[in-house]
Amino acid sequence: MKKPKVAFICVHNSCRSQIAEALSKHLSSNVFESYSAGTETKPQINQDAVRLMKDMYQIDMEKTQYSKLLSEIPQVDIVITMGCNVNCPAIPCKYREDWGLSDPTGKNDVEFSKAIHSIHTKILELTEKIIKDELISKKI
């Protein structure tokens, strides 16, 4: 079975969706392919996110990731919106889920760490659902 493609979508693709892409590659690359994108981009990934992901997971997001537009990622099977607090970007998919996460941008490290831990937990739950084939009824 081909691995499903999962896109983590946020408006600016600079913080939560980037964290989700990095953690998914770190935790679940054997189960699904991970991408992140947005309707707008930022010149760089949120530097607090970059710093904390290095501290917590030894992942340097800036090595392989950058802020991307929706048009820059392949067609995906699963879309996870992060909780945009505006109209989240829409792209075609077989399954969609909104994680409703608050944006930690501009907040302290405790709030950032909470967001990162929440994303970590949700990725493990998503991975389990994909393994059990609960999200996409048709085989990919």
UniProtKB/TrEMBL annotation:
It holds the Pfam family LMWPc. PANTHER family: ARSENATE REDUCTASE. The lineage of its organism: Bacteria, Bacillati, Bacillota, Erysipelotrichia, Erysipelotrichales. CDD domains: LMWP_ArsC (cd16345). InterPro entries: Ptyr_pPase, Ptyr_pPase_sf. It comes from Holdemanella hominis. SMART domains: LMWPc. This is Arsenate reductase ArsC. Gene3D superfamilies: 3.40.50.2300. Residues 4-129 form the Phosphotyrosine protein phosphatase I domain. Keywords: Arsenical resistance.
